[in-house]
C-alpha cells in the first residue's frame, strides 16, 4: 500500500466517498456525526468550493492551478497527528485515476452515494459508463455502504457482489429521503464499530451550495440548485419546489471544465415550458432561442 509512504501514523477510522453527486453533503454529515460523539477528524471536500474540515472548522483550499487528484496526498500529509478519523471524497474523474484515492487512504469503508450519467467526455453519455468508471475506485473485498439511489441500481449491486465486496444499504423508504444523509452517517459509524445511534446533527457544517429556496427582497423566489450536475437530479429538485414551468425562468451556468453537462441538460432545458431560458458562464455553442449573459470579466 502506498499509504505507508505518506504518514508515519494513520487514523484508525478511514472513510472514502464516491458517487456522481451527494458526496460533499455526505462528508459534512459524517463529520458532524463524528464530532458529536467526540471523535477527532479531518475531512476533505472537493465540491464547488474545496474545503478541509477539522473540528467543524472549515478551511478553504486555495488552488493556484486546476484541481488535481494529487491534492489528496498534500491533505493526507497535513492531517494533524492524533486525528482519529479521516473522511474524503474520491475527486478523480478519469477512470484510470479512480483507484488512487483508495490506494492512498486504504479506507475501512467506502460510501457510494449515487450513480447517474455524468462527465460524458470521460465516461461516455450513458449510465453504464459512469458505473464502470466509479467501480475502478473500489478495491475488491471492500466494505461498501450504498446510498438510497445507488442501492437501487441492480447492475451496480451485482458488480460489487462479483468483486466480493460486503454491501450495506440505508434501506430508506422514499418518503424519508430528506433524512438520507443522516442515515448514511449513522450507518457509516455503526459499520466502523462506533456508536452511530448516539450521533447528533445539530452542528452540520453549512454547505453554501446546498439546494435551497431564497426569497430576494424584491419579491419572487430563487431555487439555488447549483448542487445538481445531471438532468435527472435537476428535474427532481425542480419538482420538489411545486412551481409551474410556465411561471419559472431557468438559468443554467455553463462551466468550461464540464462541457458535456450543457449538452446533457439541453433536452430538459429545450423541452420544458419555461417562462425564460438563460445560459451564463463560459460561452457555449450558439443556441438559437436562448439568452446568453457572459461572465462580467469577459
Summarize the structure in words.
The protein starts with 12 loop residues before the first strand and ends in a 5-residue tail after the last strand. Helix content is 30%, strand content 19%. The protein folds into 2 domains: 2-198, UDP-N-acetylmuramoyl-L-alanine:D-glutamate ligase (3-Layer(aba) Sandwich); 212-293, no CATH class. The protein is built from 10 helices and 13 strands. The longest helix has 14 residues, at 23-36. The radius of gyration is 20 Å and the shape is globular. Strands 4-3-2-5-1-6-7-8 form an 8-stranded mixed beta sheet, sandwiched between helices. It has a 3-stranded parallel beta sheet with strand order 11-12-13, covered by helices on one side. It has a two-stranded antiparallel sheet with strand order 9-10. Strand 2 (41-45) and strand 3 (51-54) form a beta hairpin. Helix 1 (23-36) crosses helix 8 (180-191). The mean pLDDT is 84. It is α/β, with parallel strands linked by helices.
Summarize the structure.
Helices cover 30% and strands 19% of the residues.
Amino acid at each position: 500500500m502506498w499509504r505507508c509512504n505518506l504518514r508515519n501514523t494513520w487514523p484508525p477510522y478511514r472513510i472514502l466517498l464516491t458517487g456522481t453527486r451527494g458526496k460533499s453533503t455526505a462528508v459534512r454529515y459524517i463529520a458532524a456525526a463524528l464530532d458529536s460523539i467526540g471523535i477527532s477528524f479531518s475531512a476533505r471536500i472537493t465540491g464547488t468550493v474545496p474545503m478541509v474540515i477539522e473540528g467543524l472548522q472549515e478551511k478553504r483550499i486555495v488552488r493556484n492551478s486546476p484541481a488535481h487528484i494529487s491534492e489528496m496526498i498534500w491533505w493526507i500529509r497535513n492531517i494533524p497527528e492524533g486525528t482519529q478519523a479521516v473522511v474524503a471524497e474520491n475527486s478523480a474523474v478519469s477512470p484510470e485515476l479512480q483507484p488512487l484515492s483508495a490506494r492512498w487512504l486504504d479506507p475501512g469503508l467506502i460510501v457510494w452515494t449515487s450513480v447517474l450519467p455524468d462527465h460524458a467526455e470521460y465516461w461516455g453519455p450513458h449510465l453504464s459508463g459512469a458505473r464502470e468508471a466509479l467501480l475502478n475506485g473500489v478495491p475488491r473485498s471492500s466494505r461498501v455502504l450504498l446510498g438510497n439511489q445507488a442501492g437501487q441500481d441492480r447492475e451496480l449491486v451485482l458488480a460489487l457482489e462479483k468483486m466480493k465486496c460486503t454491501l450495506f444499504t440505508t434501506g430508506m423508504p422514499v418518503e424519508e429521503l430528506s433524512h438520507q444523509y443522516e442515515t448514511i452517517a449513522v450507518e457509516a459509524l455503526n459499520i466502523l464499530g462506533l456508536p452511530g445511534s448516539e450521533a447528533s446533527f445539530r452542528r452540520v457544517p453549512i454547505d453554501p451550495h446546498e439546494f435551497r429556496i431564497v426569497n430576494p427582497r424584491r419579491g419572487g423566489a430563487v431555487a439555488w440548485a447549483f448542487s445538481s450536475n445531471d438532468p435527472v437530479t435537476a428535474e427532481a429538485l425542480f419538482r420538489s419546489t411545486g412551481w409551474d414551468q410556465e411561471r419559472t425562468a431557468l438559468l443554467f451556468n455553463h462551466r468550461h471544465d464540464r462541457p458535456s453537462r450543457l449538452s446533457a441538460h439541453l433536452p430538459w432545458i429545450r423541452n420544458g415550458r419555461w417562462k425564460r431560458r438563460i445560459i451564463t458562464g463560459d460561452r457555449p455553442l450558439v443556441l438559437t432561442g436562448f439568452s446568453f449573459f457572459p461572465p462580467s470579466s469577459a
